[in-house]
Design brief:
alpha/beta, Rossmann fold, N-(1-d-carboxylethyl)-l-norvaline Dehydrogenase, domain 2, 3 domains, 6-stranded parallel beta sheet, 37% helix
Length: 433
C-alpha cells in the first residue's frame, strides 16, 4: 500500500528517556525523525550534548542532530506539541510504572496518546513500545486516539506494538543487536512496521501474529526473570537459617549442565520489578488470581527489609547499641554501573535501618543527586567530605568503583560489612546474600 512506503516515512518519537533516545538516534540515521519530550530541560540538555541516562552515544547524537535539512534523514528535538503534526509514524516510549498500590499507572501513556491523537492524520501509524499488559494498546490507548483525532481505528489510522528491549547500562546488548518483536493492527501495517524496524535492527525482527501476543511477550520476559530470581532469593533466606553460604550452594549446583545460575539480590528497576504487576493486573481483571507471579513478587519485594534486619542482627552480635549508630549504603541505582534510580529496592534497606534508629548515608557515584532528592527525598553523601566513621556498611549495588574500594578507612572499631552482591572478598565481610 502506497501510504506505508518507507521512503515517505517521517517518525516522531514521544518520550526521550532510556528507550526513546537510542531509538531516535538509530532511526535518524535513515529517516527524518522528531524527538519529542514534554520536559523542556531534557530537550535542552540533549541539544547541549548531555544525556543523563548515559544510554546515547553523544557523538552519534550530535551527528544526527547536525544532518542538513532536506536530507530526508536526521534528528530534530522539540517540546512543542504542534511539531508532531509533521510526522506520519508515531512511536510512544513513555514510562509505564506502577502506583503505590502496585497497580498499572497509565497516566503518561494515555496523555501521550492524547497528544498523538491531536496530531493524527489519515493513514498515520502509531506504534507503542511502552511496557503494558496484553490488550492495553487496543483497549486503552486506541479509544484515546480515536477521541482526540476524530478518526476511526483500522480505517483512518493504524496501530502497532513493538516492546522495548533496552537494558540500561549494557553496552554489549544494545538496541540494534537485540531481536525486535513487532506487530500491527492489520496485516499490511504489521508488514510495514516489521520492515521499518528491520531497517535499523541488525539482529533482525520477529513479527508476532497480533498486538496482544507482542504485548504478552514483553510481560512474560521480565516476569520469568522475576520468578527465577525470587526462587534463589527464597533459597538465600532458607540457607541463612541453615547457616550456609548461598553462593557456595549455587556454585555446586551449577556443575550440572542444565542448572540456571540465577543469583539472589534486590530486584528493582523499571522492568523486572514492575512488569509482573501488569500481567497480574490483566489476569485479575479476567477473574484469575495468579499464584506464582505474585508470590515471587512478594519474596523479591521483601529482600531489602531482610538485608536491613540481617545487618542489625550482625551489629547486635558485635556488641553495638543500635540507636544512633551510623550506617553507609553503597549504591542506590537499581543496577550496577548505571544511573537509573527508578524503583530501586535499596530504599527499603535505607528506610528499615532508619526505623531502627540508625543515621544512614548513601553514596553513589553514578546516581544523579537531584534525581535521588526528587524521587526519595534523600541527599547523597560525598565521601570526600565525611568526617566520621561507620558502624555498618552495606554494599547494595556492585558498581565497579566499589569492588576494590578500601573500606577500612570508613570503618569504626566493630563495623559490620554486608555484601548484597557477593562481590567483595569474603574475608572482609560479616554477611552476604
Amino acid at each position: 500500500m502506497k501510504q506505508f512506503d518507507l521512503k515517505n516515512t517521517k517518525i516522531a518519537i514521544i518520550g526521550l528517556g532510556y528507550v526513546g533516545l537510542p531509538l531516535a538516534i538509530e532511526f535518524a540515521k535513515k529517516y527524518e525523525v522528531l524527538g519529542f519530550d514534554i520536559n523542556v530541560n531534557r530537550v535542552n540538555s540533549l541539544l547541549g550534548g548531555e544525556d543523563y541516562t548515559n544510554e546515547a552515544n553523544i557523538d552519534e547524537l550530535n551527528e544526527v542532530l547536525n544532518i542538513p535539512a532536506g536530507s530526508n534523514r536526521g534528528l530534530s528535538l522539540s517540546s512543542n506539541v504542534s511539531n508532531l503534526k509533521g510526522s506520519n509514524v508515531f512511536i510512544v516510549t513513555v514510562p509505564t510504572p506502577v502506583d503505590h498500590f502496585k497497580s498499572p499507572d497509565l497516566k503518561a501513556l494515555l496523555y501521550a496518546s492524547q497528544l498523538v491523537g491531536e496530531a493524527l492524520k489519515a493513514n498515520d501509524i502509531v506504534i507503542y513500545e511502552s511496557t503494558v499488559y496484553p490488550g492495553c494498546t487496543e483497549e486503552d490507548c486506541v479509544p484515546v486516539l480515536e477521541k482526540y483525532s476524530g478518526l476511526k481505528f483500522n480505517t483512518d489510522f493504524f496501530c502497532g506494538y513493538s516492546p522495548e528491549r533496552i537494558n540500561p547500562g549494557d553496552k554489549v546488548h544494545t538496541l540494534t543487536k537485540i531481536v525486535k518483536v513487532t506487530s500491527g493492527s492489520t496485516e499490511p501495517v504489521a508488514d510495514f512496521i516489521d520492515e521499518l524496524y528491520r531497517s535499523i535492527i541488525i539482529a533482525g525482527t520477529h513479527k508476532a501474529p497480533s498486538i496482544k501476543v507482542a504485548e504478552a511477550s514483553k510481560a512474560i520476559e521480565n516476569a520469568q526473570r522475576d520468578v527465577n530470581i525470587s526462587f534463589v532469593n527464597e533459597l538465600a533466606l532458607i540457607f541463612d537459617l541453615i547457616g550456609i553460604d548461598t553462593s557456595d550452594v549455587l556454585a555446586a549446583a551449577a556443575t550440572k549442565w542444565n542448572f540456571l545460575k540465577y543469583k539472589p539480590g534486590l530486584v528493582g528497576g523499571h522492568c523486572i520489578g514492575v512488569d509482573p504487576y501488569y500481567l497480574a493486573h490483566k489476569a485479575e481483571s479476567l477473574g484469575y488470581h495468579p499464584q506464582v507471579i505474585l508470590s515471587g513478587r512478594r519474596v523479591n519485594d521483601n529482600m531489602g527489609v531482610f538485608v536491613a534486619n540481617k545487618v542489625i542482627k550482625l551489629m547486635i552480635k558485635k556488641g553495638h547499641h543500635i540507636d544512633g549508630c551510623r550506617a553507609l549504603i553503597l549504591g542506590i541505582t537499581f543496577k550496577e554501573n548505571c544511573p537509573d534510580t527508578r524503583n530501586s529496592q535499596v530504599i527499603d534497606i535505607y528506610n528499615e535501618l532508619e526505623q531502627f534508629g540508625l543515621n544512614v548515608d548513601i553514596y553513589d557515584p553514578h546516581a544523579n543527586p537531584e534525581a535521588v532528592k526528587e524521587q526519595y527525598h534523600i541527599d547523597l553523601v560525598d565521601l570526600t567530605k565525611v568526617d566520621h566513621l561507620y558502624d555498618a556498611i552495606v554494599l547494595a549495588v556492585s558498581h565497579s568503583e566499589f569492588i576494590n574500594m578500601d573500606l577500612n578507612k570508613l570503618c569504626a572499631a566493630k563495623t559490620v560489612i554486608f555484601d548484597t552482591k557477593a562481590v567483595l572478598k569474603r574475608e572482609i565481610v560479616d554477611g552476604r546474600l
